[in-house]
Design brief:
This protein is mainly α. It contains six helices and no strands. The N and C termini lie far apart (about 25 Å).
Length: about 110
């Protein structure tokens, strides 16, 4: 990740922690415009979209969140937090077997 994409992602993370989802999404997307392979920005944008999908019961947004987590995992496959978040989306999408696999891998990586 570049310094500029890291900075944008960090601003997005602060917005996310404050519950400012619109701002967080803008900053994470900006980080990804700078560096499309910024794994943390991908995963964090997935979290924003999944949070929104949960609130709105929005299936397409949940699918987009899952796609972002999967993209982040192709860049950094051994990140337990991303695996756990993907598992949450998979559960919400009615895919318990895949969710269990993602959770299990996250647990093994944390040992």
């Amino acid at each position: 990740a570049t310094l500029a994409s890291i900075a944008a992602s960090n601003v997005g993370a602060v917005a996310y922690e404050r519950g400012e989802m619109d701002s967080a999404e803008v900053w994470f997307r900006h980080a990804l415009q700078i560096d499309p392979r910024h794994e943390e920005a991908l995963a964090n944008l997935g979290s924003v979209l999944f949070r929104r999908a949960q609130l709105a019961v929005d299936y397409p947004m949940a699918l987009e969140a899952l796609a972002l987590y999967e993209q982040a995992l192709t860049i950094q496959p051994n990140r337990p937090a991303t695996l756990r978040n993907a598992a949450l989306v998979l559960e919400a999408l009615g895919r318990p077997e895949r969710a269990a696999m993602a959770r299990g891998l996250a647990e093994r990586l944390e040992r």
